[in-house]
Amino acid sequence: MKRPTKSSPENTQRLTRRAVVLGGIQGLVIGTLAWRMRDLQVAQSSQFRLLSDENRIRDRLILPERGLIFDRNGQPLAENLPNYRIVMIREQAGDVRAVLAQLARVIELPVELREDIIKSMRRYGPSKKVPVIEQLTWEDFARVSANAPALPGIITEVGLNRNYPMEEDYSHIIGYVGPVSEADLNRFEDPDQIILSPGFQIGKTGLERQKGAILRGVAGTKRVEVNAVGRVMRELGRNDALKGADLQLTIDHDLQHYAQYRLKGESAAAVVMDVNSGDVRAMASTPGFDPNKFIHGITTKYWNSLVENDYRPLADKTISGAYPPGSTVKMITALAALEEGLVDPEEEIMCRGHVEVGNRRFHCWKRGGHGRMNLADGLKHSCDVYYYEISQRIGIEKMALMARRFGFGAKPTLPLPSLTSGLAPNKQWKFDNYNEEWRIGDTLNAAIGQGFVLASPMQLAVMTARIASGRAVQPRIIQRTNGVAEPLERPPSMQLKPENLDLVKLGMFKVANENRGTAYKTRINEPSFAMAGKTGTAQVKGISAEEREADLENDEIPWKYRDHALYVGFAPYDNPRYAISVVIEHGGSGSAAAAPVARDIMLRALYGTQPPLSAYPRNLWPEIREQQLDEPPPNLNATPAAPGSDRV
Amino acid sequence: MSFMDPTHSQTPRGWRKIFYVNWPLVLLITAVACFGFLMLYSVAGGDISRWAQPQITRFSVGMVVMFIVAFTPLTFWRSVSLLAYVVGLALLLFVLFFGSVGMGAQRWIDLGFFQLQPSELMKIALVMALALYYDWLPPEKVSHFGFVLIPLAMIVIPAMMVVRQPDLGTAILLVASGGVVMFLAGVSYWYFIAAFSAGVGAVTAVFMSRGASWQLLNNYQYKRIDTFLDPSLDPLGAGYHITQSKIALGSGGLSGRGFMQGPQSQLNFLPEKQTDFIFTTLAEEFGYVGTTFLLILYSLIMIFAISAAIKNKNRFGALLIGGVAATFFFYFALNMSMVMGLAPVVGVPLPLVSYGGSAMLVLLGGFGLIQSAHIHRPK
Q1: pLDDT surpasses 50 at A3
Q2: Does A13 touch chain B (CB under 8 A)?
Q3: What is the domain extent for residue A430?
């Protein structure tokens, strides 16, 4: 190699030229860069500024607190308790399975449960908070919080959890909330964003469902700045959530609790209603279930025990149970005849225990017959033959019209799901549904509440309240919404002749207060609280001649073929306040099974507490005293379920 | 010979050399580096110890290295040029087989105290070797075909090895800065036109080969090209880099969002914000004013370097200055094009600003060579 030398001038010149050209090219490149920079940073700046904001600003939902539910005295029936829970954000967790395995080393978390969680996580977006475990004990909650750095994507938070302190007492009225299902989503055309947020609990049955729209409240939003992995850095603004409306029911918890208690062990229903306002004071349906068990998803075992039970615990029998009303419908038959002037109250009809119509024989419940019966006595003794006779004069059309005036055949106006309308049949109805002519026998059966006629306990209570008050009362169960009283108008008159109503009421009085009346044994002994009523015993299947001859005792028949026991009544007779209906499925006879229950519940409503023995006939005192001593104290302050105590 | 007498010799000696240093270049380099410290402080969220502090330390060490290189006679550098190139090639070969794998590429030799990246060394060694070659070659022969093939091989061999690592960015830098030295040396324009045509052909071939048995690039490189051409294809995946960096750049606006106020970088939306994408943070926080300012600083460095090359009557010195300056130019031009969506994401840091030791040391060493050529230029 040669030593460095100076270049020749000619070479230097060429290099200079090339360097200038190179500089020029580089200048061009730099110019392009500057132009591009101007384009991005000046010309398109506002557009990119927008994109930048979209990147970092997120609107997060603030879930509102669900409205509370109270009884008429302010006793909480549905409340919100703090819920220590763990939620997970999939995109922060990375490997969900691994994180859950890690979590299982901190708290108890069986493998099956982990699989369930993984499955439920897939339903929501990767950036959504998905509940992993609810209702943790404070110790577990603290343990998870302390280990948070080792559990990516796991967040501990305190939420609110629905709780039903009265447990079974309101399983049907209030219902329960639970995780949103596909079926729930299909109910909404355009579901509220609250409903779509993970962990939201939607009303599944009862008022929780029917009043869901106002109970759930209005979601708020908060605007937060997040970083690239979605972690909140700071809050930029907020628009608070609006708490759901509180509901105050017309239900009196003391009475409701007692009614549930009194019906325990039976598949039964009872409704107590204010005859003037229509306020439902109690609507009990047994057996019930514990709604708290549904909140985080119920176990299959518990679910099966409810579904497979012959006593149908899930059904609200007060409004969804349609029963043949039996003799409790006789007041309507009587009123139909009286209003049309088809029967004189003093006219006597001879009962020989049966009557021949066409070529069929129709039996009275008393095989020997009642002898000569007028209208009031016909009610008192519940003589079937009397009603067979007058029903032929009225005809089914007029009987059906009267039944409808008393609320049969239409759903009661209540904010509850699965209401039955019952049935007040007529000729057209039979033709439409059976494609058969109406027969005279159908009319006779309808007159005594058998055959096609159906009514729910709620409808029977409404009927009784309308008889007692002479006004077309409508049932209601919500007294106040968010502290504002629901409007209450004086119900319109039934437009029935007062003397006819009084006759029917007198007949009902005789039933429950005169010797040999069907409910005389269960009379109320306190004159100022005297109850008028009507028993009913409804056959659930046709009775053959042999069976009639055998005259089997109740407990000799399989449960599901036994008669339904019914009772309707109102009290006090002089100045009616409450109407009651009781239906005991397959309970046997109305006077033996339903009437005592109705009397006890009515006395509880009238006294507002355990009634004195003097309210009962003296011969019943030993029995009643024992019954009263057995009664557990009311669960006024039922202990709320401790968080995490019974996680599924 | 007295050390005290600068006029005694054609070239200065001893500490007197300090008067012959190209000081404007030193000041510009320091200014750019300071800009870098500021940005590293900002992207760390106000934490000086995370990136800014180590970067300052490296810069200080780099400056010492630069002055040592600058004061070393150019003749020494000329005599080690070939050796540097051969050692560079050997190290590249070594990493291909034994190098540490990092970020999906095999680039480093772990020396314990220092991660040596031979491809960085090669950038300077190639320029030195080419300058030496053209200093040796009689100027009238530069355009002879045979004498063009030799430097071409000198460029292509290390470039191919770097591509295999794989490090497309560095390979492009090698080819480009090697080409600049050839251009300055006076190789006929026709060769460049031919090379350009061949380049276009190669690009076509790259696209044609995709999916075929002779596929030329890795799938990830194709993906980067795809997303470069249309970032919206995969906004959260491979296109994320480009989309987010454009958002950061654009949202900076004219005057920026203010120091340490850039949401894109402060909230971690930007990938590799302290290294290859640091320019976006600068753009977001200081706006068009800030980016233009940096571009002017870089342009001034280029102007001073090219004029130093023109003034230098020593052919080796002039070519060395031109080559090193071109390397520097391609660094920032590629990086900026990349973050602005004008070029695919190839992984080239922003010179003197991005966090990283190898690039900083090599660049300052390169500037040391420019200074050495400048100080020791024939008068």
Answers
A1: no
A2: no
A3: 322-474+487-630
